[in-house]
């Protein structure tokens, strides 16, 4: 196996998504020090671009130095104290992980469950809050990457805030590809990943914390169990002037080159415009859906993401063989089923730079060929 | 401030160190999926190269998906259970951080303290073990980046193992630049960073766990408090055949492009040869030391690292102004003092690709000029 020259795949799985040449070039730019004034300017610009993409004015918006799961853990360790009750929507792998992560923080997690592929209604969330009135957090996954289901978030925050809880959202597979309005929708804390609809390589996890979340953190009685993800220290580095004397306080060595790549990826998102980008993802999804359904393939979730298309493996098709042929003969990666869907589903991602007519028609053509 | 084209600095601070063009090129190679057979081959090669650089046969040797501090936290969350007693050598910022990280894991930390710039003797460690015989871990920093002190590790493991404890080491600023023999020296678990003597951009933390450490983890009564850093799951991804059915189990999306860069950086280390590389660091240090002392500057630690030179700021020199002039006029970054040494010390790093005669003579010339 050649380990020197990675193949030029077309990444149509659940992420990473295809990375534009501009972003790869930015990634390879000369490394600066993490306290260099020029690097700090790049980081500030990255955070400001993240605010625009999250549609938020939250000052505390920055990329956590780890992949998406580090972002999930960052929210949990900072916003949960041992003994807290929380409600987590579990309708796939990532809701289940959130439950696990939060339990490791000492939370009592009330899992609001739905069958895989389904989502939660306002009524279900209201009922959960009524059943568990002491809950301090409600957490939902907007884009469940394991099932391809799109969770509607509008109206949720009123219920959650009415019960005195914080509203947390996993937007790993939606940020930059689906409608997402952190401020308008009253989201108190949110995390995402770089390698999905932002089309940057994996390695960073954009997060944003609103005022309610900050107040919760400021009122903590105990230190967060993670030093690496402790926002009370991270904010003194990421926010200019938050350190003593108006400066910045070194916390850890930020992943410099990954920040360059994210900054460039965000520039591309904003040049296209969020509305146009979201419309492009919708159009690509509809084109793929029409093609797949014409082939007799069917979607598993009722409310499908545009960014990730989860379809049942047709009877008679060999899961591994089909994916291996797509990879070997076409250089196309699609995703296997995850969790209970292993062996039963394929996941076709149309994310960021990958959500194009060219890719849709190519993957349909290739699938028709290997399913013959 | 230009945020598009990072300046070409000569990085002679405490890290990041100068990154070779080969490594930057590898970083910008096409992104593969994290389960792509070619990516898995690259990852396996990276882990094997890490074993060679750590001088270990430990199968469980891999890069944690975060910067050096994530590696420190990875060791702590996996090897400590609430209530454990541990001994940590604290003679600078990073020993102090280790204490903090371990306390957040519920450990009772016995800090073995020494003045900043000094190191610990075998007798001191033996006495600490005698005073705290229930200690389950002894942790030392080989290269204390805040003071520039080099901690000798030979013989320590016998003492530590004799008391039934595990021997943990921070090798962030030594791996690839100083003598380090994980197996010969009986080190049970170790972490490092990519952006120091390996001359790869920051973003990954190489770690290695030996048999004793594995046994300790396997005997845990509770889950590690971090999901992201839980080695019981990470090993099923990083070790081929460790998952059910001999396969690999997806945990999180690995930082693909950073792995390319690390793999290339390690190739460069092994092409040079560890012994030659360590000798080059020693020679660069001696040349710098002779030059600095001829200028009347003096070293703070008695046993100085070769990779990081911590010197007192001479009377009358303006700390900020000198560093700013080096950056603006020469494009050279050196480090400020950290912790109690802020405003009192400079830290000149000669790490990896940066440890050259050219850089030594350049920084001496520049310092002479700005200190005039």
Biggest sheet strand order of chain A reads 2-10-9-8-5-3-4
Q: Main beta sheet of chain A, described?
A: 7 strands, mixed
Q: Report the β-strand fraction of chain A as a percent range.
A: 5-15%
Name of the level-1 CATH class of the largest domain in chain A: Alpha Beta
Question: What general outline of chain A do the C-alpha atoms trace?
Answer: globular
CA radius of gyration of chain A is 21 Å
The helix count of chain A comes to: 12
Sketch the topology of chain A as an H/E string, one letter per element. Answer: EHHEHEHEHEEEHEEEHHHHEHEEEH
Summarize the amount of helix of chain A as a percent range.
25-40%
Uncertain residue segments of chain A: none
- Please report the two chains with the greatest interface, counting residues with C-beta closer than 8 angstroms to the partner's C-beta: A-B, 68 and 68 residues
Give the oligomeric state.
homodimer
Name a few traits of the molecule:
3-stranded antiparallel beta sheet, homodimer, 39% helix, 372 residues, Aspartate Aminotransferase, domain 2, globular, alpha/beta, Aspartate Aminotransferase, domain 1, 7-stranded mixed beta sheet, 2 domains
